[in-house]
Amino acid sequence: MAEPIITVENLSKKYRIGMRELKGRTFRETVVDTLAAPVRNLRRLRRLTRFDDRESRGADDSLPAAGSPTGDTIWALKDVSFTVQPGEVVGIIGRNGAGKSTLLKILSRITEPTSGEVRLYGRVSSLLEVGTGFHPELTGRENIYLNGTILGMRKAEIDRKFDEIVAFSEIEKFLDTPVKRYSSGMYVRLAFAVAAHLEPEILLIDEVLAVGDAEFQKKCLGKMNTLSHRGRTVLFVSHNMAAISQLCSRVIHISDGSIAQDGLPEAVIHAYLGTGMQSAGSSYHCLDKPDTSAWVQSVELKDIDGRTKDSFLMSECIVVESTIFIKSRISLSLSIQIKEQNNSPLYHFPIGDSPQSLPAATGMHRVCTRIPPPNLYPGTYIMKIALSEGIGDHFEHLHVIDTISFDITPDYSTCSRQLSRHAGVIYARAQWNVDDLP
Fold first, then answer.
1. Which runs of E-coded beta strand occur in 210-317?
2. 307/316 Cα distance (integer angstroms)
3. Are the CB atoms for 43 and 18 separated by under 8 Å?
4. What is the spatial distance between Cα 162 and Cα 333, in angstroms, rounded to a whole number?
């Protein structure tokens, strides 16, 4: 195995809430803090005086604890360790505030870690937030050369890539306009074009791509995929699970500043999306009655013989047996959706497409839905069941179950070759005619 291009060992970053670090402050910030210091000191003196008065009166109040804004510290990252091989595309996922952006800022040398070590073996280009690395007073053309120079490239190298960068960014008309007049979308277009085309060995990208339009996002994902095939290493932070699943060969889930899981995209994304769910598996049972006029009491997945299962062949029907409780007489509709683990929808089965309808009478009712063979590629999928009030475009969800999972396994009686999940989502047989030409 090749030597890692990125090595992170016991990386930690601590911030003090309510206080700025001395390093890297501007002259203006220093002057403002100096002038404001007497006011802050006076406030602290008053708090101490009040505390002394309370103590003399026998009060048991105390000074602000360590968690107060004047002395609180948080660990944005805590003992994070991992390695990345050359050419890997690694997705980094997690909730807001988990520490993802802090990690990329440390890798980009924008901020320093509190402890731990990072070793990078290659030229790093980063796109962390709109405007990072650009001088607002300089034009787009000038910023291209500025960024290239920062990356250590010579003018001849930048000249060679210049036309390609401009064509990708699609802002040729505004190339000689100061970037401070760019929209956020134009900023990101140029920033990504510069970051991706100036031949970095390591490319770090934060959620900033969400600013661009759908067409540009697709263009960027294609470019990152091309870079990985050329042996470039990409670290990609995003909340778009579909993009993470499509692009990345590996995913790291960061939670509360630590690595919760590191592995294949399908498994990590499934675990991440399942965090906090009330139940999981091929069945569901409502433990607490929702405060609605109707709810789903239970769901079970079965085969056509009535056996409860959590795994089905590609060519096998799936029977969804739902029990619903109607508390008051209303117009109800029920729908079933099959999704990938990244929440991308695949199938939708509304009861409105069936001659059957849900009963209006109160009480407990059983609904059986027979889903034809889905012919999905082997893997784990999610089933979402929604009970709604109203029909058509005018409805309101009363109860949604989004925690049912099931597996699809290969059916070699209909397909004799090995099936790769990367080949697609739905396996369909086509009619092939092969004729000899004269």
1. 233-237, 250-255, 258-263, 283-285, 294-302, 311-313
2. 13
3. no
4. 57
Within its chain, how far is the Cα of 392 from the centroid? 32
- SS3 for 140? helix
pLDDT score for 116: 93
Strands 311-313 and 394-409: parallel
Report whether pLDDT(71) > 80: no
**Region 18-34: what's the mean pLDDT?**
56
Torsion 411-337-245-247 (CA) sign = positive
CA 384 to chain centre: 20
Interhelix angle 214-229/184-197, rounded to 10 degrees, is 10
Residue 436, C-beta contacts closer than 8 angstroms, at least 6 positions apart: none
Q: Which residues lie across from 237 on neighbouring strands? A: 92
Q: Does residue 62 carry a pLDDT above 50?
A: no
Q: Is 168 helix (H, G, I), strand (E, B) or coil?
A: helix
What pLDDT, on the 0 to 100 scale, is given for residue 353?
66
Query: What gap in Å lies between CA 318 and CA 336, rounded to an integer?
Result: 12
Give residue for tokens 């048991």.
60
In the structure, what pLDDT confidence band is assigned to residue 61 with cuts at 50, 70 and 90? Answer: very low
d(CA 207, CA 296): 37
Asked if 122 and 19 touch (Cβ cutoff 8 Å), the reply is no
CA distances from residue 350 to 298, 384, 389 in whole angstroms, order as listed: 18, 12, 13
Choice between 401 and 274, residue whose per-residue pLDDT is larger: 401
Compute the distance between CA of residue 310 and CA of residue 307 in angstroms, rounded to an integer: 10
Residue that is written with structure tokens 């059986």 in the block: 368
Q: What's the rounded mean pLDDT across residues 167-190? A: 85
Contacts made by residues 357-361, CB under 8 angstroms, sequence distance 24+: 358/324, 358/332, 358/333, 358/334, 359/326, 360/326, 360/329, 360/330, 360/331, 360/332, 361/326, 361/329
Residues 6+ apart with CB under 8 A from 179: 134, 135, 136, 138, 139, 140, 143, 187, 190
**Residues found in the chain:** 438
Q: What's the pTM?
A: 0.53
